[in-house]
Design a protein that fits this description.
Elements lengths: L16 H19 L3 H14 L4 H14 L2 H14 L5 H12 L3 H14 L4 H14 L5 H13 L3 H15 L5 H4 L3
């Protein structure tokens, strides 16, 4: 799950700066709880941060990630959708929804959310990686759009394992498709 921590939405209407400060303090405490491996405590603290300032997309997103880890998938998707609505240019919440669908084996839905994440940021590496992987490995889909994402990923990637994977995929894409004659051995 791609987490983030950012101040509450500056455009959100809140009763006072004190509410925003309280939300930030609670979110920081939630992150500390996560580092101490106390996810239940972190969930409670993120919920309190959201109560203090409901326009805080980072708290919604991180809560969605923790709910995913706990297996509360329906609630996680709803929470992540709220984060996505609050931060329409941030690819992480919609990417995280894609991760949930991929884990559940709904590859078309996962691909749709990965593409939505890429529409928000075409260079967001986790969505590039996942969109290519899902298309190639699960959907067995190789089209021009996948090839273009693969090309972009090859330019951006700095992880040697992913780079090697993308090189293998490019090699497979560049090989001509076998003909009927080839398959009959003639």
């Amino acid at each position: 799950c791609a987490k983030r921590f950012a101040p509450p939405n500056a455009n959100a209407v809140v009763d006072s700066g004190a509410k925003r400060d309280r939300a930030l303090a609670l979110a920081e405490q939630a992150q500390q709880a996560e580092r101490r491996q106390k996810p239940d405590e972190a969930i409670v603290l993120y919920r309190k941060a959201i109560e203090a300032d409901s326009g805080f997309p980072g708290a919604w997103n991180n809560l969605g990630c923790l709910l995913t880890e706990k297996g509360a998938m329906v609630e996680a998707v709803n929470v992540l959708k709220t984060a996505a609505d609050l931060a329409p240019s941030d690819p992480r919440p919609v990417y995280n929804i894609g991760v949930i669908w991929e884990k559940r084996g709904y590859y078309d839905d996962a691909a749709r959310y990965y593409l939505e994440a890429l529409a928000r940021d075409e260079s967001y590496k986790p969505a590039l990686r996942s969109s290519i992987y899902v298309d190639q490995q699960h959907r067995r889909k190789t089209d021009e759009a996948t090839a273009q994402r693969l090309k972009r990923a090859l330019l951006l990637e700095d992880d040697p394992r992913w780079l090697a994977y993308f090189e293998r995929q490019r090699t497979q894409l560049e090989q001509p498709a076998p003909t009927m004659r080839d398959s009959l051995g003639r």
